[in-house]
Please model this.
Amino acid sequence: MAKTSDVTKPLCSWIENLKWDDIPDHVKERCKYLMLDGLTCAIVASHLPWSETAVESVLKMEAPTGNCHIIGWKNRKTGPLPAALLNAAFIQGFEIDDYHGLAALHINAIVLPALLSLVSHQKHANQTVSGQDLVLAMITGCEVAPRVGMALHGGDILTRGWHSGTVFGHPASAAACSKLLKLDKDQIEDAFGIACTQACGLMSAQFESSVKRMQHGFAARNGLFSSLMAQDRYKGISQVFDREYGGYLSVFALGAKPAIPSKILEGLSNTWQVMNFNIKPYACQACIHATIDCIKKLQVEHTLKSNEIQKITLEMGGPAFHHGAWPAVRPMTVMGAQMNNAYIAAAQIVDGEVTLKTFSSEKLDRDELWELIPKITTLHWKEVDMHEDPFDKLHTRLTVDLVSGEKLTTEVIRPTGVKSPLTGEEIINKFMSLTNDLITTQEQKDIVQFMINLDRVEDASEIFKLLNTNAASPIA
Model:
């Protein structure tokens, strides 16, 4: 049983022993707002074309009836595993979900759908889950995911082509679900061993596929599956984070920097990673947010008309460069547009904003955009990679050369949502703004009120009465 570290068992013990009273009040409060943002994303994307295709296709394979709700689909239910998969695909469905700047993952898409499935699953078995237990389980997942990610150097895994959040997400979902099921440390270790052997995700999914929307859902579903199997004492890989041959950390570190297993335990019950999840203000990948902010800074003092621009140069760090600097090719899919630096920059210049409507079919193929996009070059700014603070690795510099000969330059070190994280009030405003006209005003108010008071709710399954609605599409 060759192994190189000893972090798996201590982590399992920490999860088993974590109590509600161990967690600071501000962490619990932040977690509730984070979960509200997850519901925002799920409602917004629940009836986008690729989401509807996913629902109809998955329900052809799975039981069309079950106990677990599909968010935004009135009276549509299925089993716990497909429900977790679909609801996760909604949360990741339009690139407006949370992200962790240190570990490059989207926690709501990984953990929240799995837990919601468990809430319904347990209710059907006459076991009521309290709101407090739901928040505690969510915090557990939030603490495990980034620590696993940081043990593998966070966003560096993107440069090797792995979809980092999907890789890091499997153990996070397993941890959260195990906590909600109140598993003991041995069962939790089995859940990790079952989940981690399923971990994968290719970043080439970001170009034209729909499957990128679903990959965090693989982690949500598989972690849920793993914890339910472990509940019945199905044996998983022991010490899966510690094994030298075929272990989780050793395999995903192959050909790269050596893993740092100690990161998994570092700061547990001291530094709360819940506080390091950022809420996106823009519907595109997080590394491009600084690009938008750079352009917005210039637009305050300059008109930046596309026909007056000779060329634009963007400089950014390695993970951002590899993630979003690939050549934009016309015609572009919604997914490609949301992940591409040049498209987003052009849209911000032409429209003066990046909103959900930026990715509607009539806007994706505009001549004005595609005349500007070839003028935009993105370079790897290697000095940014040397920043000690990982959040500063989002540092972006923009230079605009105008036809007149004037040169405009600006920089953003930390973009909106990182420099100053969105407050609880701003998260509520995001929910109200993005779900406006998608659900009723009363439904909006009821969902916000329920989530704000979640830790005082006796039966968390009551949320499904509010989510049992037919949401509209934001780009219809």
